[in-house]
Amino acid sequence: MKIVESLFDVCYLMIVVAFGVRLLLEKKNGAKLFGVMAIMLGLGDGFHLIPRVISHLSPGGFEAHAAVLSWGQFVTSITMTIFYVLYYHYYRMQSSDTDNVKKWLIYGLAALRIGLVLLPQNNWGTADGNYMFGIYRNVPFLIMGILLVVWSYKKKEILAFKHMWILISLSFLFYVPVVLFSKTVPAIGALMMPKTVAYLLIVWMGFKYFVSDFGANNLFANSITILIMGLIGGVFYREFTKFYAFTDATHLGKVHIHTLVVGFVVSLLMYLLAIDIKDVKSLKKPYEIYLTGLVFTIANMVVIGIYEVVREGSDVIVRAAIDGTSGIGHIVLSVGIVWMFVRAYNLKISE
């Protein structure tokens, strides 16, 4: 379970940030706003999920990282509030609903939520926190969510809001029981995974709305996105190992190189080949398999790399298991690359 959740968390963070970066390259009305939303979601959740991954992979476990987990929750509480404020502006832009009463209602609830989060009574940085303040600070957040669900539902005929109201509803339905009962029934905390899936699907739906066509220019934009993600991976490797004063070799050092070569270069080559191909859409399926394999392969590298840094010589997880999942990623990646280039070759010679 440690490996599964760690891989899930890393894949989630990589995907939502990548979607956000990709949307920043789009020129459609509202795309950049949604991109900022996705990046805010990923970076904010990173403050909470990366410490969880570290806790899973280090001998001290969650008890040794109670303070940083608490502060991560503090950051996420603020960034999630901002995420929904940005979603309101997305709703306002796409629906042309310029009712200022709604705007100030969202602003007021967001300010109240952040104000409650900032109060010292929350006992941030402690293992237990303050149960009642955990409820207080989530009341305005829940009201925000209900309002956005209702407003999105009323505009569900607009393609930009298709399924959004359902996904936002699910995110809160999974989140509320955790707030209320996780202290007494720790197993309830498992609902945070489907809640995270709901957020991932929100970003996915927004991405598909703005990036609906598959063409050569899309491949080029994806290449730029992968390039940026590779550079982010390099920064993470440098800062993470520096923080732990870790000087030995680690898989984290391979992340940016693999992302740049197997990701950016391969995707760019496919773009150059696709420029003169009429039926570019025939490349979509193998390209998606390639991207799936790339994401899963890089996620495995990140998890293995973090484990190598924080394990302190202990066998916290079964290394053969993570090596096995890494092998699956390599297989999917290889199938995608070979299929993609063979398909491109066949399309070239047939034209």
From TrEMBL:
UniProt cross-references to Pfam families, sorted A to Z: DUF2871 (PF11070)
Taxonomic lineage of the native organism: Bacteria, Bacillati, Bacillota, Tissierellia, Tissierellales
Gene Ontology MF term list: monooxygenase activity
Transmembrane segments: 6-25, 32-50, 70-91, 103-119, 131-151, 163-181, 187-207, 219-237, 257-275, 287-307, 327-345
InterPro entries: DUF2871 (IPR021299)
Protein name from the UniProt record: Beta-carotene 15,15'-monooxygenase
Keywords: Membrane, Monooxygenase, Oxidoreductase, Transmembrane, Transmembrane helix
